[in-house]
Each structure stands twice: as structure tokens, then as C-alpha cells.
Amino acid sequence: MTQSLLDTKYPRIGTTIFTVMSALANEHQAINLGQGFPDFSCDPQLIDAVHQAMKNDQNQYPPMAGILELRNKVSEKVANLHAKQYDPIHEITITAGATQAILTVILAVVRPGEEVIVIEPVYDSYIPSIDMAGGKTIPIQMTPIRNDAGVVVRYELPWDELAGAITSKTRLIMINSPHNPTGMVWQAQDLDRLAELVEPTNALICSDEVYEHMVFDQAQHQSVARHPLLANRSFLISSFGKTFHVTGWKVGYVCAPKDLMTEFRKVHQFNVFTVNTPMQYGLAKYLEVPQAYLGLSDFYEQKRNYFQAGLSKTGFSLLPSQGTYFQCVDYSGLKIPEAKLNETDFCQWLTSEIKVAAIPVSAFYRESYDANVIRFCFAKKETTLSSAIERLQRL
Description:
Distance between the termini: 47 Å
Largest sheet: 7 strands, mixed
Strand order of the largest sheet: 2-10-9-8-7-3-4
CATH superfamily of the largest domain: Type I PLP-dependent aspartate aminotransferase-like (Major domain)
Number of domains: 2
Structural class: alpha/beta
Helix content: 25-40%
Order of helices and strands: HEHHEHEHEEEHEHEHEHEHHHHEEHEEEH
Number of helices: 15
CATH topology of the largest domain: Aspartate Aminotransferase, domain 2
Number of strands: 15
CATH architecture of the largest domain: 3-Layer(aba) Sandwich
Mean pLDDT: 96
Low-confidence stretches: none
Strand content: 15-25%
């Protein structure tokens, strides 16, 4: 065997759980409720707007920060929703999806050895991005609250641990609301408490808000943009792909104060430079009708309710889903031998034998943490959800 010329630079980084489970779902022809993407089409008017941009020959490089028309629309949207005015010239950048935005924020501000706090379970790109920047990940864990039977019923923010983790070495704190994977949503008092913790420090905030338009039960999304002290030290990240059912387009945006955005763009220009031109023009046109995103919470709340009603007739214990398009469940109460499996093995068994794919929440921790909780995605057609429910009810 020929010896490799390269020892791995990132020994802790493997293939994402989403890739693994989607491949397994394809292999077993399972219903894929694992990876977070819709199986229904976007609005044809959005396709028409992109098509028209292509026909208008808007197909060459756009400005590095994104076309001004789209940045203006983002500025208007944030101002209307959160009463915070970001300057479209200096404070908004269009990105190749939220994951690229997250990596760029970290590369732009984290120096080798500086500390970055993440709150686990955490979206799986955060920690590898910190590793790539040479930063030091400081993971703290949400508290899984259990009932008398030992079943997880919700997650709570670990305020005491967070307060203890913030030091003079903290460069960045990464937050995510609505939260993937748990579906938990930060409240206004949570932002107030975070502000109290960071005010005497130089810590910056990276606020992942890609599910901002999926907040249920008449609640309001609490963006860092709504909080002046946090807004002044935060990168706000969102995603057109999540909002408009076009995850494969990989288009998102970042809002931040001018001094922070200047540093962000230094990295952005060399790791992606800019983003698909006709899609930017199409999105700018589509954003002229705010109802395209203002009605999204009701749309997904109906799907959540339908899916929860079906799962209520199974042995799964449902955790609250306050936002996102994810539903977490505790499977330890199932009356089957497989309920004793760890989360990864249970998800593999569920995919191969029951033909429904899910994601183990343990995959959202740096060091695997099994709580018998898995995550389903309900961003699917009703027929897809119905078929999945029928299979899951056989357990």
C-alpha cells in the first residue's frame, strides 16, 4: 500500500451526519425526514423572476458585497421587522448561504488560540469552522429537562454555565434562534441577559437566525437586531434558501456594524468573492411582496401541528417545537428492544427497517452526548408526512 503524502490536517472532522443519513435513506428507499430541506416547490413567481434576470443578461459578476437592489431589500426587511436600520452600502453582504457566512465570520474575527463559545447541541458546521480558524471551542450544554420517568421534555439555556465561560479570552459567542436542532426559541429576556453578560467584555456575537420566519404560536422572533447593545457587536445571519424553499440555491446574507462588516468582507472576497447574479436579482424582485415571508410561520405551524398529531399516536415523547421546521422526540418510551440503542444506531435502524430517516441529536455535540433524542424534519408535503406517520405508528 502506498503511504499517503498527507497526514490529515483536521483529524476530528468527518463526513456530516446529514450526508451519511441521506445516503442511508437513499440506499433503503426511506422517507427522508433527516436532512433539513423541503420536498415541495418554491413559488413559481420566484423562478420567473430569476428567469427574467437571466434573459435580461444579468449573468456576469455582481458587486462583491451583492447587488445593491437586494441589499436595499434586506435593509428594508430588517427595519420593518426589528426597527433596526442597517446601511445597505456598508453593513449588509450577500453570501453563498448561511454556512459560508458562519465560516467567514469566524475566519474574520477569531485569531489562533482565541476562545469561541458554542451552546450544544449546535449546528454541525460551527465547531469545524472554529478549528479551521485555529480558535479554541468552549462548548457548554443546554440542560435537557427530564420528567419523573426520565424522558427529556425540553431543553433550557445554560445561563450559569454561559456566565462562567465568558472570560477576557472570549472572542466570539455563537447563538442560534430559532434553534436547530431542538426547536427552542430565545425570548426577549434571554437577549437582555446575554447583553448583561457581554456588556463589560469585548466579546462579539454571531447570531444564526436562518429560521427567523418560522416562529409559532403567535410568538415573535427576537433578533439581535432588536437589541441595541447586542446589535452593535453582532453579526446577524439569515438564509433565503430556508425562507423561500430553495435550499439548493445557497444564498443568504449578513448584517453587521460597519467596522465588523469591513473585516467580514476582507475574508468574503477571497473565499467566495460573490454570489450567483440572476438569483440575487430574482430575490430582490420577489422581496417586493413581504407576504412571501410574513406568512411562513403559519405555513409551517400547520405542518408542525399535523406532524405532531400523527406522532402523538406513537410511543415517541414529543419535545416542544417553538420554531424551525424540526420536531425532536425522545424514543426511550417505545416498547421495542431497539429503544435501548444509542441515538445514532437507533436512527440507522429506523432508516433501514422502518424506512423513515431521522437525525441523532448526539451528532450536534463535539463529544457525543446521548439523551435518546432524535430530530425529524417536517418541511415536507402532507402526503410525505402522512406516509412517514403511518410507518412510525407501527412502532
